[in-house]
Amino acid sequence: MWMLAGLAIFAGLGLRVYALLQPVSNYPFPSFWSESGRLYEAYQVYAPLLGDERAAWPWLDPGRAILEGLVWLIPNSQIWMYRLWIVMLSLASIAATAVASAWGAAKFTPADKLRFWLFAGWGILFLNQGPVYYHTLPAILPVLWFYDREKPIRNLWLVIICSAWAGLTRVNWFAMPAITATVLYLVTEPKQAKTFFGYTKHPFIWGILGSGTAVLVYAFSTAASGNPSILAPEMQYGFFRSKLWPNNGFSLGLLPGIGLATLAPTLLSGWMLARNTRHIHWLRTTALLGILLVLFAGSTYISLRAGGGYDLHNYDTFLVTLLLVTHLLGWGTLATEQETSGQPAMFSYAWVLLALLVIPLFFAIRGVPTRWQPPEEQAQQAIQDLNAILGDYEDDRVVLYIDYRHFVLYGLVSPSLNLPEYEKIELMEMAMANNRPYFDQFRLQTEQHEFGLIITAILWDGYKEIDSEPFWYENNVWSDTVAAILLKEYEPIYINREVNLAVYAPKGD
Hints:
Radius of gyration: 25 Å
Strand content: under 5%
């Protein structure tokens, strides 16, 4: 049975790698909606090292840009290198986290190497159900690897340092370094005769100092970008309960989807806690369950936000923490307040691993995309057309790249960027948040025809019916703000529907 489980893990990992490798090519147009913006954000971090002092600090997820931008340091970097680097980051970060989670448990209760690697392999497939994004995981990896129950000062420094990185990732990750250390503490440290304060002082300090560090780093990073915090009053996002159940964007729906994805480890962990109820203090059990419930509720709330997507990636904190809890309990790491008769660890049984693998394999099969075949010839022709338009451009006004800024970065077109504002990701985020002061300024600049040309995906100011397709709301707010503002003052001089490229010029010029 162990061999069968190993084959299942190998097959599942093969499917995940195949899916990730699909976009890796030198195709010049984006392989997904936000790729050009992500490339530009990654460039912004290292622009000073590349001789460009004008690029501002990236706004959203600067930690992601820091990791992705390392590829820009390669001389003569090409877009296929960036795409391959993303694959490598995705695979390495999730693999490292799954192994570290297994190690964080098994180092307290040593296991044989075969079982260790098999359950770590399950962890990789489990986290990919989200997926969990690579730039968030460095915020917990050092805690998982180096946490030591005998060295509280070192644990505190680990939490603080990791929290500084968390402040560069996602708001829902600010407390994750402290939460990870707390879970390790609750499972491996019996309360015994300690007072309530005596037992909880370390998690309390981790939470306050760790979260505070993350908030400070986030505040400084946001200020450096020149954009408001996503928590600022002017950022008024919509929330949609229709995502909870099967919909056009996610056939499973959020609640059935996350319930299915986490069913086996939840049942296993719950059973392990239940059978030890008499041997561990209620405070520890309550705290563990409370952490998981809070992360689940918070993840659900974030998933409902406009721009939150339609998969399970916003359940990342819940998935990572449940994986750690399952590893800790499955390896028999749970420290009890009193002596108990020896019980074999649940991870001693091959059938447990097979049960845990069923749903992650289902998600791996479900996530295999159809083979991507981009229109190479049409793309090259579109870039030639764009260069011809730019070659005839003799105006002193700025050429605004709302989209496709990576054309400039890779030398596919000639003019240099000199306006970091109004990139597509930023515009969409502001549109979803209904940031009126931001669009008042944008409207003023377009009315004054400050941009000589605007290069973007084709603008459309029509509306989609509610729940008619996955991103109906995003489409409608884009149409109502960005497209409506631009099409009032600008008109298309070039449209290529095959690659979704358009060039707009001021009306009446």
